[in-house]
Amino acid sequence: MVKIIMYPLKRFAWFKRLNAKVTYELLAKRIPAAEWQFMNYGFIPDDNERLPELDNEKTVQQYPMQMYHYLASRVTITGKQVLEVGSGRGGGASHIARFFKPAFYTGLDLAQNAVDLANSLHATNNLKFIQGSAEEIPFADNSIDVVINVESCHAYGSVSKFLSEVKRVLKPGGHLLMVDFRGDNKMNVLRSYLFDTGMKMIEEKDISSNVIRSIEAEDDIKQARIKTLVPPRWQKLFCKFAGVVGSPFHLTLKNGTRHYYRFVMQK
């Protein structure tokens, strides 16, 4: 019954915004576990890509962390002003701030509970988290070198407004680094929104196979974490949300009806 009611509402921008805020406010408040710092499906690099030397970080959600690492590796981050839109629990921001050493890294998230949790988990001199909307980014024109967006914009009320805001805050020559998933038709819509910004497409790569490998490699650990952290009555639903092996997300990536892309754009 809930699915029948919610499905038609998903086409309304107001509902997408409300659903995202409520979902991530609750997750941060109800499951504030320090060992759960990332909320993406993970990435395993191609055989010709060098694995990063990450010391003790290898033990903490390695594959989701690698999603951030290989995305940030597409451009120069060191010494730059970086903004992540949709920073979630802050694990990706923390890794990039420490490993790539930007001048400053700001994580922006719609959910205040997620912002509070991220600030409590990640204490780094060049990093802070603030609350705000992807569709009204609270930064001045031409003030940011790199905008990062990881598995987030599919939940926005208006992706075109988000991209307009990204272009506004980026400095000339600045970059948008983005990964996200869509079905065929919706991916074409996203691609058209990106081209409509007038920014230059530096890279457009289907990384679905890299994400599938990550989901399958991490499945045992992920399912064990869900059993430990999530109340039993919510575990089945959360397994779908988390994209475990056999979930709709995993199966649609495997059969090619859903795709996961990495984009690099330059203003």
UniProtKB/TrEMBL annotation:
Keywords: Methyltransferase, Transferase. It holds the Pfam family Methyltransf_11. It comes from the Bacteria. One of its GO terms (biological process) is methylation. GO terms for molecular function: S-adenosylmethionine-dependent methyltransferase activity. Residues 83-177 form the Methyltransferase type domain. SUPFAM superfamilies: S-adenosyl-L-methionine-dependent methyltransferases. This is Methyltransferase domain-containing protein. It comes from Chryseosolibacter histidini.
